[in-house]
Structures are given as C-alpha cells and as structure tokens.
Write the structure tokens for this entry.
Amino acid sequence: QVHLVESGGGWVQPGGSLRLTCEISGSTAGPPSMAWYRQTPHHQRERVAHITSLGKTTYDESVKGRFTISRDDGNYTTYLQMNDLELEDTATYFCTAPFFQTWGQGTQVTVSS
C-alpha cells in the first residue's frame, strides 16, 4: 500500500516562495507519476502540476512559470517549488499518485500581507 505525506505549507507574503514536499512510503516498482492539486472553499480541487513516470511535466496555466514539480530518483519524494506567490494561490495543497489512487492529508498555503 502506498502512503503519501505532505509538508512545507505555511504563511507567506505575496511574491514569496515555499517548497512543498510529498514523502512516499510503500512499493511503487519504479518512478510513479505524481501530481499536485489544490482546493479552496470557492473552487473544486484542481490539478496544478503533474510529472509522468518518464519525467515529463505539465502545469496549469495559472501557475506556469512560477511553480516547478520535481521528483527524487531514489525514494521518489516529490516537491512543488512555488515562487512569486500570489493571493490567489492560497489553498490546501494535496499530492497524489494517480496510478495508486492515493492522496496525502493536505497542507495549507496562505498568501497574504
């Protein structure tokens, strides 16, 4: 069974940066595809970044150029580097391994002055 645990959320001023971490436990038999989603009371959960098992990355247009998803080669820990954060980025962020249909518990990101 695959389990995911997110960390790294917090409060940051507009223009600041945060790096979210998703630790993976359990056997995946190779590099898993991974994704980051976010959810607010006003929006359905939306995918903001995705990385395939081969390392190809895609991003939602709202974060393209500001966010970067990456994955370690060994333990497959996955990161979301968030730069130039905006008020609209405030949300609960979740990581998921789509093939295994599992989610982490979420970590809160708050962007405000």
